[in-house]
């Protein structure tokens, strides 16, 4: 039995079967990851947009090591020194308001929803309009906020207070507004939905609509935040600011942390007793996040995401000409999707077998979320692997290179 088979057996016996894994990963460095039987991969999944600074960045590792020996946790019954530093940083990078810390994306979105409900409570406003094909998490409220019935199936009745509009269709959003509407929640780039960027008209239109109708504009930055789209936060590509947004994934480079980041208007809505989290904003989580932000700043990774994204996108677009099942390349920065006219899973499996990790999303989209500091030669290598995988999948015999 291989080591992979041994671990697989243990999973089967002891871990609830909610995923469909194949590989056992044991080590990561930069843009590479190794499996337990010695396989090495270019990791263009990056923990689903978690490892924006790459695996085990030395500065993040050092920050965690230092803090773990000093103070890991003391509960929010007491202040810690790291939490306000992180809140200050996130506020300065965005809307100069205040933050609440939690542990995951779903929890950050729950925080946004609760914030919107508390804000609208006395006026009887608690409905949140979200978008079809959005993704906001797997807790009951965030699954209800998610505009995909497959996420909700079997868990009905879902919590009340959500309605769904067509993404990138302002009229459809307008049609959902009632006197109970408190907020509109949107991703600047839908990730799980298949890497679909919002249009400029849509994002600026929602902002205007929220101002006119006195609603809150909320952005889910869990997947598209932390430099991934070429700006710190996805909404910054549109020249607008929401009233609050959620963060998680790339914030802690793999150390779990989520955040609700509010504008001044929403910064003092929560009062003691309204909302809390045992693990939210521990010194350890905040130091991991502070180190992550420092790396993104020092290595200019927002700019790098824009530049590398262009390079990668060009290479991917070239495949539209060569391969008949490749229809479109879309996305922003280092959040790119290759749209096929067939299910993407098969070709994603072939690529993994050849040493390139990507995700199959929304049935027919290959989703790439590489570390933002991936090297140009690694992008070239990924494109070569993808080309080989595409040729195999299309049943095309590739000519041997003359070199
Ligand atoms: C946009 C978005 N929001 C929320 C979530 C949920 O985050 P978590 O899995 O950390 O709860 C995800 C996860 O994929 C996401 O992509």
Keywords:
single chain, 403 residues, alpha/beta, Aspartate Aminotransferase, domain 1, 7-stranded mixed beta sheet, 4-stranded mixed beta sheet, 18% strand, binds pyridoxal-5'-phosphate
CATH topology of the largest domain: Aspartate Aminotransferase, domain 2
The low-confidence parts are: none
Q: What overall geometry do the principal axes of the alpha carbons give?
A: globular
E-strand count:
17
Structural classification: alpha/beta
Largest sheet: 7 strands, mixed
What do you see in this structure?
This protein is of the alpha/beta class and 403 residues long. The chain has 2 domains: 3-56 and 301-394, Aspartate Aminotransferase, domain 1 (Alpha-Beta Complex); 58-298, Aspartate Aminotransferase, domain 2. Helix content is 38%, strand content 18%. It contains 13 helices and 17 strands. The chain has helices spanning 3-14, 46-49, 58-70, 82-93, 105-120, 140-145, 149-152, 170-176, 200-213, 283-298, 301-322, 345-354, 376-394; strands at 25-29, 32-35, 40-43, 99-102, 127-131, 162-165, 181-186, 189-190, 196-197, 216-220, 244-247, 258-262, 326-332, 335-340, 356-357, 359-361, 365-368. A 7-stranded mixed beta sheet has the order 4-12-11-10-7-5-6, sandwiched between helices. Strands 1-2-3-15 form a 4-stranded mixed beta sheet. Strands 13-14-17-16 form a 4-stranded antiparallel beta sheet, covered by helices on one side. Helix 4 (82-93) runs parallel beside helix 10 and helix 11 (301-322) runs parallel beside helix 13. The longest helix has 22 residues, at 301-322. The radius of gyration is 21 Å and the shape is globular. Bound molecules: pyridoxal-5'-phosphate. The site of pyridoxal-5'-phosphate has 15 residues, from helix 5.
């Amino acid at each position: 039995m291989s080591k992979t088979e041994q671990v697989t057996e243990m999973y089967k016996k002891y871990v609830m079967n909610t995923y469909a894994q194949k590989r056992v990963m044991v080590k990561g460095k930069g843009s590479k990851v190794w499996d337990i039987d010695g396989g090495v991969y270019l990791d263009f999944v990056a923990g689903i947009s978690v490892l924006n600074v790459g695996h085990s960045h030395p500065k993040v590792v050092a920050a965690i090591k230092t803090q773990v020996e000093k103070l890991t946790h003391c509960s929010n019954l007491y202040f810690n020194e790291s939490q306000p530093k992180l809140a200050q940083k996130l506020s300065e990078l965005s809307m100069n308001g205040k933050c609440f810390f939690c542990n995951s994306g779903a929890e950050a979105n729950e925080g946004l929803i609760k914030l919107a409900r508390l804000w609208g409570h006395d006026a009887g406003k608690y409905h949140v309009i979200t978008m079809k094909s959005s993704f906001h998490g797997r807790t009951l409220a965030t699954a209800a906020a998610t505009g995909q019935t497959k996420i909700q199936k079997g868990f009905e009745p879902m919590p009340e207070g959500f309605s769904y509009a067509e993404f990138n269709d302002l009229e459809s959003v307008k049609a959902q507004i009632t006197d109970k509407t408190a907020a509109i929640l949107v991703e600047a780039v839908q990730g799980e939905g298949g890497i679909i960027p919002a249009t400029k008209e849509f994002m600026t239109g929602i902002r205007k609509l929220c101002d006119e109708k006195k609603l809150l504009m909320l952005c889910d930055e869990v997947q598209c935040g932390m430099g991934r789209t070429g700006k710190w936060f996805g909404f910054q590509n549109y020249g607008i600011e929401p009233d609050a947004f959620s963060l998680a994934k790339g914030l802690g480079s793999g150390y779990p942390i989520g955040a609700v980041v509010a504008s001044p208007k929403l910064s003092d809505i929560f009062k003691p007793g309204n909302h809390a989290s045992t693990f939210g904003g521990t010194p350890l989580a905040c130091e991991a996040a502070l180190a992550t932000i420092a790396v993104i700043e020092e290595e200019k990774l927002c700019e790098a995401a824009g530049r590398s994204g262009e390079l990668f996108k060009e290479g991917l677009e070239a495949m539209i000409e060569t391969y008949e099942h490749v229809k479109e390349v879309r996305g922003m920065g280092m959040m790119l999707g290759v749209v096929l006219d067939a299910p993407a899973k098969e070709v994603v499996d072939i690529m993994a077998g050849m040493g390139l990790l990507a995700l199959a999303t929304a049935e027919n989209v290959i989703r790439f979320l590489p570390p933002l500091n991936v090297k140009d030669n690694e992008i070239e290598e990924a494109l070569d692997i993808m080309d080989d995988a595409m040729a195999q999948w299309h049943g095309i015999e590739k000519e041997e290179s003359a070199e």
